[in-house]
Amino acid sequence: MVGMKRTIITAAIAFICLSCSVAPAQAKQLIFKSGSLDSPAEAYVIRHPTEATTFFGRLQSKDDVDYLSVTAEKGTSLDISLDTVRNDGEFNPVLIFFGPDLSKPAEDPVIDLGSENGAIIGRVNVDDRTYYRDTYILTDFYSGPSIKIKLPKTATYGLAIRSPNGKLGRYRLDVHGEDKLALSDYPDYIFNLIKAIFRIY
Question: Which residues have a Cβ under 8 Å from the Cβ of 37 and sit 6 or more positions away?
């Protein structure tokens, strides 16, 4: 029993050391959906959108829409991508980025953008998806829509994730800017990395 405890502790220490050895530019804030994100007023606020952030969530009903938001200065460059767990098959959500000084979309986003806002809608045909393996959390993902944007205004912008075909499943939303992960965020990063490895989302 003592030997097993020692093995578990050793493995845990090794895992933490390996996680901490990841270069800050490669590290991510790992965040898990908690509570209702069913409206812009309930949106999850990504605190540091210019740091590399991964948000894990799940759409749980055919009418479910998850909202997140970012606030940043004019000229801030963001790369946003939405991928899905490969085991969830035909789950293929769209990604909507909306806010001030964006063009009105050519298609109906099926969400309330607000009268002053425009939007960018990202989608990928289900047959055109490719998949990859995230070696850190040992999970296969389908690559979904992505949006690259330089913010036209200092303001709060929204992100919406919805499933137009009504299929349900798990997703990961990646938001990348130009900043590195702060050292003070590493404890949360390591804890959430463990959650992601065991797919607790």
Answer: 43, 44, 57, 66, 67, 68
**Cα–Cα distance for residue pair 35/115, rounded to 1 Å:** 27
| Cα–Cα dist 145/191, whole Å | 28
Q: Does domain 2-197 have CATH number 2.40.260.10?
A: no
Strand order in the sheet with 65-72: 44-45, 65-72, 155-162, 94-100, 117-122
Contact residues for 160 (Cβ-Cβ < 8 A; gap 6+): 65, 66, 67, 95, 96, 98, 109, 111
Query: Which single residue is written with the structure tokens 């270069």?
Result: 23
Which residues are paired to 140 by β-bridges?
A: 133
Q: Cα–Cα distance between 36 and 13 in angstroms, integer?
A: 35
- Taking only the tens place, the pLDDT of each residue in 26-38 is 447 889 999 899 9
CA distance 80 to 99: 15
For the chain, the structural domain boundaries read 2-197
Specify the pLDDT at position 137.
87
Give, in order, the Cα–Cα distances in Å from 42 to each of 72, 81, 101, 127, 170: 19, 21, 23, 33, 19
pTM: 0.77
